[in-house]
Amino acid sequence: FLGSSLALVKFTRSQSTRENDTEAVHSVQIDMPIVSYLIYSSVTTLVIYTLAGERMPWITIHLSLPLILLTGWWFGAGFTEDSIRKVFTLRSLGIFSLGAVIVFAFARALRFISGMQPSLSSVFHGAEQLTGWILPIAVAAVAVLFMIRLASTWKSLELLEIMAMGFLALLLTQTARSGLRAAFVNYDSAEEYLVYAHAAPGPKWASDIVEELSQRTTGGYDLAVGYDNDAAYPFWWYLRDYPQAFAFGAEPNRTVREYPVVFASDANAPRYEAYLGDDYQSMTFERLWWPREDYNNLSWDSIRETLVDTEMLKALWNIWFDRDYELYGELTGRDVTPRGWQPASRMKMYIRNDYAQGVMGLIEATEGTDEWVWTDLYGNLMQDLEPELIIGGTGSTAGFFSAPRGLAVGSGELLFVADTNNHRIQVLDLQGEIQQTWGFYADSSAGEPATGGFNQPWDVTQASDGTILVVDTWNHRIQRFNPRGEFLHSFNADDPLLSPSGLYGPRAVAIDDQDRVYVVDTGNKRILIFSLDGDLLTSFGTGGLGLGNLDEPVGIAVDSLGDLWVADTWNQRIQVFSNVDGLQFTAREGWPIDAWFGQSIENKPYLALSPQGHVCVTDPEGGRVLCFTSNGEFQLGFTGGAMILPSGIAFDEQCRLWITDAGSDRILRFDPGLCSPDVIE
């Protein structure tokens, strides 16, 4: 503003003397339209932004650029060869020096009078007054007298220009100082307000860790690193040499678990942690800082209070001159440390446990080894049980199996087994004797599949009238048979009101005491409810992570209250859906399962409810069975019988568990003692 004001004076003066002033011939010429435009641009910008309430720091360029151009013209117009020689005479240098003395003397006096100068004891009060303000003012007065004497032969405008030039030189020095501090001292500090959206040191620290892990594990830059849409800045650049880096955005999916290192902002962290779980450890970094926006609370009253508050003035001076926010934080009660700075954007760095050893702040390697050891949350309550009964083996004749999956204990002490890869249903008594079989291979890819035929049936159950419902998985339908195995009808949710229409790879079926049929439509991530005749009654569930969402649901069971229990496989949890009015269900709770890690076509768990309300699930690729109380507390788990891939599971009336082992093609019966008095809830 000072340079622009001098420019306007210079311009007005030059217009009146332009024809007669020989100095104007050697100066930079400027026309009225240019000056008018620069003034108009600066003033209107100030007014418009004020009315709009705009306070963003970067818009000051629109205000200052016209003023900079005017000031630049003033320098060009004022600095002729004669004026430059005049500036560097002893008289001019003397005036500059005296001006500096005056400025510093008055600054010293004002600092003392305003109370910014620390006070000494009363013993030295007189000396303090003398050195604090009397002596500086006296020195300033003498300097003014000498300056007047030296400048007595100069015109007033020339003197004003010389003094302004000296003041601008001081500002230039401060500008250079601020620029150097911003570029080389405070380049990654939140306290440097010359930079908007300031990159914090966190991304660089995190990048160093990524490079160390990549070199250690791949010998180069082939480490797989995932990041969200917020961390994309600046990691799209920092990870430019990593061909396995991938941007997941705000909505990750199950494949994020394949990445040993993952970055996510605070806002997206819950979505990522739902997938990463306890298999990853995390560190939090500051990603970006912005200048403090305390100006949002400015008012005329607050400005007036600040102008009379010496401590606040000192705090603002410390911020402007030294980027020191300590006193400001004390006066305002705000946290101005890097950790508490606002506004800021923070990010989390997730490192998979098997990569985390040796990273400062994370887990260390097991003593005496270089490897991370996974801890089984269920290990202390796991048992190795001997099965009471083993049925079958590999084969296609009656009584033998090929990758059996679901099974059900029906009326008449009969056991129904989905003999999946033999494409049939086998019926046995509870001593393991074969009673009947039915079914044959039928494939829908060749057209309408034959009724009574199957393409990998995965589950089976029995209704109250004795009819049997079979999940014909890869023919995408449910088939119903009478107790003799004779086909009655089939249904597949081919309803135009259902989106998507039809079933896709259904895996399980359950039936309640009112003969409503619950089908787990695994591929479409939902539950469908039918009448026993196959009429679609309703459906619920969509893909996702939230409570009520499903991702690869498989096992299902209905309790005595009509509530549903679902093995939400890829979300690694059991979800409970409360029956509200018979056909309306709402998600009540979901509790995590420390299992079901893989996503292979074999890792499809089933669940069963005991007569006393226990919930038991299979952990196929873990080769075990896990049992919980109805509120999710782990009760016990077991292996045994050389189980390879336990899949289907069912309780009989004696509280014994029947398990299909798809890996060894057998049926096993265990009694884990869940219904004994010391185990019942």
Question: How would you sum up this structure, described in words?
Answer:
This protein has 681 residues and is α+β, with helices and mostly antiparallel strands. It has 14 helices and 31 strands. The strands form 7 sheets. A 6-stranded mixed beta sheet has the order 1-5-6-4-2-3, with helices on both faces. Strand 19 (526-530) and strand 20 form a beta hairpin. Helix 6 (90-113) runs antiparallel to helix 7 (125-150). Mean pLDDT is 84; it is low at 19-28, 118-125 and 363-374.
Set out the fold topology.
Layout: H1 2-17, H2 22-26, H3 32-52, H4 60-78, H5 81-87, H6 90-113, H7 125-150, H8 156-184, E1 198-199, H9 202-218, E2 225-227, H10 232-238, E3 246-247, E4 261-265, H11 269-276, E5 280-289, H12 300-307, H13 310-322, H14 326-332, E6 344-352, E7 382-384, E8 389-392, E9 407-410, E10 414-419, E11 424-429, E12 434-438, E13 457-462, E14 468-472, E15 477-481, E16 487-491, E17 508-511, E18 517-521, E19 526-530, E20 536-540, E21 553-558, E22 564-568, E23 573-579, E24 585-592, E25 607-609, E26 615-619, E27 624-628, E28 634-639, E29 646-651, E30 657-661, E31 666-670
Parallel strand pairs: 2-3, 2-4, 7-28
Antiparallel strand pairs: 1-5, 4-6, 5-6, 8-31, 9-10, 10-11, 11-12, 13-14, 14-15, 15-16, 17-18, 18-19, 19-20, 21-22, 22-23, 23-24, 25-26, 26-27, 27-28, 29-30, 30-31
Helix pairs in contact: 1-4, 3-4, 6-7, 13-14
